[in-house]
Design goal:
homotrimer, mainly alpha, two-stranded antiparallel ribbon, 2 strands, about 65% helix, about 5% strand, globular
Chain lengths: ~425, ~425, ~425
């Protein structure tokens, strides 16, 4: 992939990309609804209001600051090492100034990135459910919108060093990430891991004695409806991404759509079967996680593989996700209510690797592995460090009293469902 | 209608069809949400998880097997009778092999059919609410995805014998089904009837003495919200279908959209009035059924009639639907929680007939009647027989204990709303 | 802006506008869901069924009658004053006769107006929550669909006198309303004010002694999910409106989309901050109002301003909305459950004025002010008078007994959530 500006972009492709990008927020709505359904009823309003807050904050921060670093321009920040140019940050204008005069494709790239950063920040927000404070969510969103996401987006989409692995080191077409499996999902999953490490598990999740406590989502209908709404957003997102970041011709996009659908379907069937075998009955929330993991996998694969390969990659995602969710919880004592670490993080990385396995170009797999390694080896420690520092200043986690009464009453002064009677099971409340 | 392959398909039509097909899953999401809302709270998670399961199973079965039978190719399976060739099944490749190299239009047809089969299997699943087991739903979805739906789709969309009624017997343009009123809705409605016959009514629905028991849906907001979400999907579906199956030029599609909207609106007003006259107060669930019946009617009519005719056909659907739902329940002791037999079955058949009445071509009405007769006279007994045989092997209906505690606890081991207090009215639970 | 008929409309623009208009109902679904969530649980089914009823009634009335007055034709009704022609009503055909033969653009205009009138009538319906009767809602919808909305739409979109301010009096490009801030939102807000004046506040809202009673919405998740769903509809609506009513080239639309998103985001952040400062904690429902006010503002501005200006106009909307909601309630004893007077009315008028401030054309601000004055000075008294007369005949407000048991039981004979246990707090029920 090369910088965006000089590329021609025929009118039909432009109109199609634009129409598809408008649908992308349905993925955002779906993920936000899933997050809320997987949390507790007494934190439901805070979860969804927080979603609006992190989306808004990230979008504004990206528009004012981050878009400058994400852009691919002739004056990009570059350092030289081993005889090669390493393009590590864009140098576009601040405040989106001159936006209306930019090229059609550069404008679409900004719109796509605005929506992408809105989805990125939802992912750690969901993992911090029931204890992450609104100010922490907003601060994370601000720093992700202004700096963290723009850098990763620049490396992969803005003609940065990951995209240039192809031209610089003959690694296939350079790092490929059509639907945002790296810049959105893996980055979001990595951040989710950092958030739950720092915020710690919910009270009562891991009692001193005995097994961890199951804390089922308060509304499974929200969770499963969110899966269906997210599907529409994902279909559109993968196709818009293929047009924008993979230079796909419209005629090739039907395969992308079919792949997206098959990946989700295969993952759902796999998770259904795995949880049925593992627990005797299928688990609805884990099935939702599996479906979503299939979609996340497709974010990397749908534009570059065949339908059968999409079935296979989705199947693997659906098998691995419920096992990982359990492993993280039981073996590593990680309390991740939305399962985002597995669903967005691991499935995103798996998809990126799989895209390298199934892509026809020589060296593509190495390029993908370098991208995966960058997210795990560079972004995870960096994000953890940033969050650790932030947590010293504004405290991520609610105080115990607030956690006891619920985030809604504590942070908003009111419940999401003031007229409904809820159980008072004090064993873990 | 003739086989798809040789037809030219201009770029704008291609891009528009593709974008519209991405919206079609909103019809699926809407119907799934309506189904869940019309069932009981203690089966809500099973209803919606089951929706994901039947969608996924049907989609995979169609991709691996069914697409071969649905395709329109030069090597279609044909028998000769009365001096004519009867094209009864396609002969495309299994496993979608070579899909990426197929023509643009053939690819879009597969995408449309993948989404169609996902919607077909939701329809009987909704009618089996509160007692149909997940394995039964998955088995139905597998056989519909692999065989039943592909045949009907081939006959109507893949250049099969119903489509060839025009060229073979001068019956107008052959059997017309732009939006899937036959291959999706009437087929789904017919299957819903077979399911409820075999699964039987919910316990307590028809007590030994007295009238049938009203079992209101547990969340009317889901039902009515589903209606609004489904509208978007239907608008897109009817227009994509017109482009794909009726060879409509984009410029004619605005009428299709207006017709879809007017058909739903007229049906809603009609059902509102009928239930108000009949019961003294309008019935919200039946109004939702009416709205949906108007949309289903439009699946056949929207692409071929005028706005005034769309108003009229919707009006008729809205008048007939609530009366039929009552008739099926009281006179025939049929327990159809989602009303799918009337909403998808009868309204779909009515729409197909009405398309024949209002279409300008000579002989169109006869072609439509032959399609309607095929669904009722051939598909209903065949589907019933298939389900009867399946029921001997894997038992469609949950055991009485499972029905008493609810499908969620019985099949999933957990409730959809674990934190909310629900009424324990034991009269029929 | 000039009449629509003679304008050329390239194929890509046509297809894009059509695809975008199909998404517009998501704005309708979002607003309907927000209205329902902001009302009481015992009126939830009536709220959402009423939404379907008012949408359907308005759409049918517009198709049969109103479209004739909205159309821009060579035979428009004109009177002459001060040496100028004042075009005050269209003279198209009744019953959409000849619709299929109309020009592509005129057809799209009708589709856009059908969707617009459906959204207009939702706005006063939401403000009348918990006491406005279904027959009143339907009657309002009928008169708005047949007469009130068509006139305003004709003045602004159909080449009427407001649109001609540019050619007649050199006021910029004439009154500009790309996304319906005037014909939809300000008109709807003005009607909401008339409805609450006539229907009066809910029982217990303003007790004889002490402050007004807070009556929180019964489901904040619906409210906030509605915000996310509405976003997709708004993005599409603003872009379709720019194509249709501002003659925008597709290439300029990315800015419109970015502006829509930034306007909502800035408004949300502003309302969050204002309510946090004002009440100590952010208010979730008011934040939803703020987000929506940002979207409403963008309906006027998104197509004509820069991203920074969109941030600013959204910010102002988000600051003003919560203060106005409080002012209307405390100082003027207005009980507006959905906040529509501020959210749609004031934010719409602010957006129209702001579009005049930021638009480059000379005289544009005057044209916008004349439009704002027309809505406040002409439409508000006219609508109030019409409602006052209607109220004499069919009584807008439910009787006290009906209000006590809730609109669902009273008008529909059943609850939205029959299985859930709700609190019986008799202090204001």
């Amino acid at each position: 992939m090369t910088p965006l500006a000089p590329m021609p972009f025929p009118e039909t492709s432009f109109a199609l990309t634009l129409a598809l990008l408008l649908l992308a927020p349905l993925a955002i709505a779906g993920v936000a609804l899933i997050n809320t359904g997987l949390g507790r009823s007494r934190s439901a309003a805070q979860s969804l209001l927080g979603s609006l807050v992190v989306i808004s904050t990230a979008v504004i921060a990206f528009a004012l600051v981050g878009s400058a670093f994400a852009a691919g321009t002739s004056g990009d920040h570059v350092f030289h090492l081993a005889g090669k140019a390493w393009n590590w940050a864009g140098a576009g204008p601040l405040f989106l100034s001159g936006f209306g005069a930019a090229g059609a494709r550069a404008q679409l790239a900004v719109l796509c990135e605005l929506l992408s950063v809105a989805l990125v920040v939802l992912i750690p927000w969901g993992s911090g459910a029931d204890r992450l404070r609104l100010p922490a969510g907003a601060a994370i969103a601000a720093i992700f919108g202004a700096l963290v996401f723009p850098l990763v987006a620049h490396w992969t989409w803005g003609g940065g060093w990951l995209a240039q692995l192809g031209t610089n080191f003959s690694m296939g077409a350079g790092f490929l990430d059509g639907g945002g499996a790296a810049a959105i999902h893996a980055l979001g999953g990595v951040s989710a891991l950092a958030v739950v490490w720092i915020a710690g598990p919910r009270k009562g999740k891991f009692p001193r004695e005995g097994l961890s406590t199951a804390m089922p989502g308060h509304n499974v209908v929200y969770v499963l409806l969110g899966c269906l709404i997210a599907l529409v957003g994902w279909l559109a997102w993968n196709m818009a991404g293929s047009l924008l970041w993979l230079n796909a011709a419209p005629a090739t996009l039907t395969v992308t759509a079919v792949n997206t659908l098959l990946s989700a379907a295969a993952a759902l069937v796999a998770t259904f079967s795995v949880t049925r075998i593992r627990f005797g009955k299928p688990d609805a929330s884990l099935c939702a996680n599996g479906w979503l993991a299939g979609l996340v996998t497709s974010s990397a694969c749908a534009g570059v593989v065949s339908p059968l390969a999409a079935l296979f990659t989705g199947l693997v995602a659906g098998i691995v996700t419920p096992l990982l969710v359990e492993l993280f919880e039981l073996a590593l004592s990680i309390d991740d209510p939305s399962g985002a670490i597995s669903v967005h993080g691991v499935a995103g990385l798996w998809g990126l690797a799989a895209a390298g396995i199934f892509a026809p170009q020589a060296g593509q797999f190495v390029a993908q592995l370098i991208g995966v390694s960058t997210l795990l080896g560079l972004m995870l420690p960096v994000v953890y460090l940033v969050f650790w520092l932030m947590n010293r200043v504004l405290v991520f986690r609610v105080d115990p009293d607030g956690e006891r009464i619920g985030m809604d009453l504590h942070e908003l002064g009111g419940n999401a469902y003031p007229e409904f009677v809820v159980h008072r099971d004090e064993s873990y409340r």
